[in-house]
DNA sequence: CGAGTTTGACCGGCGC
DNA sequence: GCGCCGGTCAAACTCG
């Protein structure tokens, strides 16, 4: 399972970001989702079925990846939203009814299609790592089996529907688990001092995370974190699967963790 | 005053 | 069908 999951992440995943294209280190970002039913607004035209091989066996493991990709098929949330807001009148009307309980129309009937997600762990004391984008917090929830809450952020850029979740590992409170979901539809507003400044311009996206380059050890890059920040030892990663690169260097800046994997991790506890 | 955060409530999906 | 839980909304609040 773990192996599978990790495998997923070493495999090129999706073309998350348009701007990922000018990424020098672009690893292969072809978006997978061979079976992505075409949608009107798919940003990442997914030509290459890379996942097919992966997704054959483990539903769980692939769920997050391929599934997400598939889910992409629907339409990005922002689009959905746009649509919804296109039906602004609807919303307004509903607003008038809102005194009831049906406060909002929310998502329409259609099964909610989720954007591809990508989680990674960072050892940091800071919860909300600045990745160069501007995020607005729109929710926070207590996490089951964890004393730490999970925060929900959305990219503040108007048309950008990218979301991210930030939570602390209940196991190791010093580890922050960040899950990105969606594709930025705009350039990174700030990249210099950002947490991910060590990354080539395009800030963290699933694609960039998926890229092995993202796994460069700390000494290869200026640490965006405070001096108190530690790095997760590769052993952790080894436990997740493997990564020759990181193994070589012994340390790892961030650990890329498939969301499903984390789930499985939990399950196995 | 606008932008961002907090927080309680709502909703939908999923497992039992 | 029911309850649990994750995700989202939006009003109220805070801060610059």
| Reported CATH architecture of the domain at 121-189 | Single Sheet
Low-confidence stretches: 1-112, 191-253, 258-269
Major β-sheet strand ordering: 2-3-4-5-1-8
**Radius of gyration using CA atoms only:** 18 Å
Q: Could you describe the largest sheet, including whether it forms a barrel?
A: 6 strands, antiparallel
CATH class of the domain at 121-189: Mainly Beta
Strand content: 15-25%
SS summary, helix count = 9
Number of strands: 8
What form results from the Cα inertia axes? globular
Structural class: alpha+beta
Spell out the CATH superfamily of the domain at 121-189: WRKY domain
The CATH topology of the domain at 121-189 turns out to be: N-terminal domain of TfIIb
Intertermini distance: 14 Å
Give helix and strand order, one letter per element, not per position: HHHHHEEEEEHEHHEEH
Mean pLDDT: 50
Helix content: 25-40%
Could you characterize the architecture of this molecule?
The chain is of the alpha+beta class. It has a domain at 121-189: N-terminal domain of TfIIb. It contains 9 helices and 8 strands. A 6-stranded antiparallel sheet has the order 2-3-4-5-1-8. Strands 6-7 form a two-stranded antiparallel ribbon. The longest helix has 14 residues, at 59-72. The relative contact order is 0.19. Residues 1-112, 191-253 and 258-269 have low confidence and may be disordered. It binds a DNA duplex (16 and 16 nucleotides) through residues 98, 101-104, 106-107, 111-112, 136-141, 143-144, 150, 152, 156, 163, 165. Residues 50-59 have a biased composition (Low complexity). Residues 30-115 are annotated as: Disordered. One of its GO terms (cellular component) is nucleus.
